Amino acid sequence: MIVSLQACSEMRSSARRRDAIENGFTMEHFTYFFNETDYLIWFKNTFLIATMTMILSVSISAISAYIFSRFSFKLKKKMLMSMLILQIYRHIFRRWRCERINLRRVI
Prior knowledge:
Order of helices and strands: HHHHH
Structural class: mainly alpha
Distance between the termini: 27 Å
Strand content: under 5%
Mean pLDDT: 76
């Protein structure tokens, strides 16, 4: 882990990793990253978008689950079956795509 942090602190190529270990660890690049760039603003924006997306998707899912569990309507069975089939085929398509490009591990 120390070698990884030292490699991060070194701006040169990985062939110079030995020099980074010999010269010691510096926080120069990390201080530049956090002080001179807008990284904290970028992180805040990304965090807000992810949080809002999570809240929206959980809300929609919860409302849909409540509707499917409490109410009965004409296309309820067909809609539930179509959602189930879409979930199954998505997995089958992903497996087929991974096998097609010769991935060893299927996600």
